[in-house]
Automatic annotation (TrEMBL):
This is Amidophosphoribosyltransferase. Residues 35-253 form the Glutamine amidotransferase type-2 domain. It comes from Paenibacillus ginsengarvi. Gene3D superfamilies: 3.40.50.2020, Glutamine Phosphoribosylpyrophosphate, subunit 1, domain 1. The active site is at C35. The keyword Repressor does not apply. The gene is purF. The lineage of its organism: Bacteria, Bacillati, Bacillota, Bacilli, Bacillales. HAMAP family: PurF. [4Fe-4S] cluster binds at C269, C415, C470, C473. It catalyses: 5-phospho-beta-D-ribosylamine + L-glutamate + diphosphate = 5-phospho-alpha-D-ribose 1-diphosphate + L-glutamine + H2O. Its cofactor is [4Fe-4S] cluster; Mg(2+). Mg(2+) binds at S316, D378, D379.
Length: 493
């Protein structure tokens, strides 16, 4: 049952925690987003709104979920491993009383799937209760952590979120807003933060706006989310995107718009448009599905091939495949079907079964692809193993030719901003030429969307570099200083 945290100042999450590791080779080498956040201020059913909001954001994190509420005098919270529907039930939600709440879904990397790192994290410090949830990664967290440990801070998780909480706890400011402001200016990286006390809700987005973060309203209540699709799930109205470097404060006097820095340079993660965000979400007033269709159209212009059908790899590539088909006039067909009931796999399969593992999640439709020249649209190639398996699925189903088209440039560089990516030496785009990749994935032809085509497809935002987007995974142009790749780690672990 949820309970109020009773811990000494600065320390958090005392007691025993269990670990539930997900180990073994990942059958799909797709990139993983780290987390999603949702917040409510001023609604009597705050916990239930968070539940539905998290459900809409489930694609951003599927290993743990949590909700923390306040009734104005104390916190109530519950966190658990698994999907949102597995973590919460009616009784748990009913026990999370209060009209202010923050919530979180999380994906962990490298098998580090444990309750101790699930969010929101809840703290006791000198000014009372504090709960924190974030999406993203603090690049300089290791350095800040070492400095805090030298000053006597005791850490109980490996999360960046705890680093920020310690900065707030050690601030010379008693006011939570000023303490948060002081902490935020020390951070380098990508983040969408929600801070909650018994009387306030504070939202902050990093100076580059790398991670999406939006503000909405539901009657007189305010809501925050990583994506606008969560507003649709709870019937809220989208108000606007939170600006890079912005600090929004909600308390009994209403909403106050503020900033923690004026030094901003917009660099929204391009992969949010390509792959991570749901197609029914809007980022900076750009609909994700429409952007992906434009990527497909541009890809068709840059790399037309004569074929019989176009098919997309479910689900994120379907929009681009539709755009490619519309531009070329080649019929779009459901050549690949996704099995949505495979669940999460905790077994350690044999190598032989592992090689066949892709068939658990994807099937080629023989009646559609047999004897046909197929254009297979996908959003990215990471290691190349999944692309090879899907191409072979199509060939085994009788496809005469398989032409692979990717609706993004070659993925050559790791991300340090809250996306689980392999090291550069594991990225096939960094190690092989396009022709070598084509041979490695057994395709008849292969073409990637140009970076210029990508930026133009999304749309130029605010007249900034790369149209206001981060394209570092394609061009090595990181918007912030980044650590040495060999020593870097994701802050969500």
């Amino acid at each position: 049952m949820p309970h109020e945290v009773k811990l000494p100042a600065v320390k958090l999450w005392g007691g025993d925690f269990y670990n539930e590791g997900v180990t073994g080779e990942i059958l799909f080498d797709k990139l993983k987003e780290e987390c999603g956040v949702f917040g409510v201020f001023g609604h009597p059913e705050a916990s239930h709104l968070c539940y539905y909001g998290l459900h809409a954001l489930q694609h951003r994190g599927q290993e743990s979920g949590g909700i923390c509420t306040t009734d104005g005098s104390q916190f109530h919270y519950h966190r658990g491993m698994g999907l949102v529907k597995e973590v919460f039930d009616n009784d748990k939600l009913a026990s999370l009383k209060g009209s202010i709440a923050i919530a979180h879904v999380r994906y962990s990397t490298a098998g580090e799937s444990k309750l101790a790192n699930a969010q929101p994290l809840v703290f006791k410090y000198r000014e009372g209760d504090l709960a924190v949830a974030t999406n993203g990664n603090i690049v300089n967290a290791p350095e800040i952590r070492k400095d805090l440990e030298r000053q006597g801070s005791i850490f109980q998780t490996s999360s960046d979120t705890e680093v920020v909480a310690h900065l707030i706890a050690r601030s010379k400011h008693d006011d939570i807003v000023e303490a948060a402001r002081e902490a935020l200016v020390k951070l380098n990286g990508a983040y969408a933060f929600l801070f909650m006390t018994n009387g306030k809700l504070i939202a902050a987005r990093d100076p580059h706006g790398l991670r999406p973060f939006v503000l909405g309203k539901l009657g007189d209540a305010y809501v925050f989310a990583s994506e606008t699709c969560a507003f649709d799930a709870v019937g809220a109205e989208y108000v606007r995107d939170i600006e890079p470097g912005e600090l929004l404060i909600l308390d009994g006097s209403g909403l106050k718009e503020d900033r923690f820095t004026e030094k901003t340079k917009r660099a929204v993660c391009a992969m949010e448009y390509i792959y991570f965000s749901r197609p029914d979400s809007d980022i900076d007033a750009v609909n994700v599905h429409s952007a992906r269709k434009r990527m497909g159209r541009r890809l068709a212009i840059e790399s037309f091939v004569d074929a019989d059908i176009v098919t997309g790899v479910p689900d994120s590539s379907i929009s681009a495949a539709i755009g490619y088909a519309e531009q070329t006039g080649i019929p779009y067909e459901l050549g690949l079907i996704k099995n949505r009931y495979t669940g999460r796999t905790f077994i350690q399969p044999s190598q032989e079964l592992r090689e066949q593992g892709v068939k658990m999640k994807l099937s080629a439709v023989r009646g559609v692809v047999e004897g046909k020249r197929v254009v297979m649209i996908d959003d990215s190639i990471v290691r190349g193993t999944t692309s090879l398996r899907i191409v072979n699925l199509l060939r085994e189903a009788g496809a005469k030719e398989v032409h692979v088209r990717i609706s993004s440039p070659p993925f050559k560089n790791p991300c340090f901003y809250g996306i689980d990516t392999p090291s550069r030496k594991e990225l096939i785009g960094a190690q092989k030429t396009i022709e070598e990749i084509r041979k490695a994935i057994n395709a008849d032809s292969l073409h990637f969307l140009s970076k210029e085509g990508l930026v133009e497809s999304i749309g130029h935002l605010h007249g900034e570099t790369q149209g206001g987007h981060c394209t570092a995974c394609f061009d090595n142009m990181y918007p912030t200083q980044v650590p040495d790749e060999e020593t870097a780690a994701c802050g969500c672990d």
